[in-house]
Amino acid sequence: GATPDEPAEPTEPEGTVDFAAAVTVLNGTTISGYAAEFAGYVTNAGFTNVTATNASTWPTDQNTVFYPSAELRATAEAVAAAAGITNVVESGFEEAPGSIVVFLIN
Q1: What is the largest CA-CA distance in the chain?
Q2: 81 FRET partner, CA 20 to 30 A, in 5, 21, 104, 106?
Q3: Nearest residue to 90 (alpha-carbon basis) of 82, 100, 80
Q4: What does the DSSP assignment read for 28-94?
């Protein structure tokens, strides 16, 4: 068993995290470099296929991680945790089909 002076293991979300999954960070704000900053957080968490660009549609008014299919849920939750975003929604995103999308609006 763990002794009190050992740090607890971080809890993994259910399912398997695919660190090679496509992640697209979309900047829906007027802040220059905002998507790149969040892409850095996600890359630092171990994701290897991260793209940052500007949004051209605004489907929501809060920072949200969208994921296109149920098997990517655990991966999307890990991306959201890395980006500090609590809103995670199963929904395709027309700008980046098949990709997990980190949508930044605030």
Answers
A1: 51
A2: 5
A3: 100
A4: -SS-TTHHHHHHHHHHHTT-S-EEEEE-S----SS-EEEESSGGGHHHHHHHHHHHT---EEE---T
Angle, CA 90 vertex, CA 12 and CA 96 arms, to 5°: 105
Tokens standing for 54? Answer: 């500007």
Instruction: Quick: pLDDT tens for 28-45.
Output: 999 999 999 999 999 999
Give pTM, 2 decimals. Answer: 0.84
Q: Is the pLDDT at 14 greater than 70, yes or no?
A: no
Under a CB-based contact definition with an 8 Å cutoff, are residues 105 and 63 in contact? yes
φ/ψ of 38, rounded to 5, equals: -70, -35
Mean pLDDT over 88-102 rounds to 92
pLDDT averaged over the chain? Answer: 90
SS3 4: coil
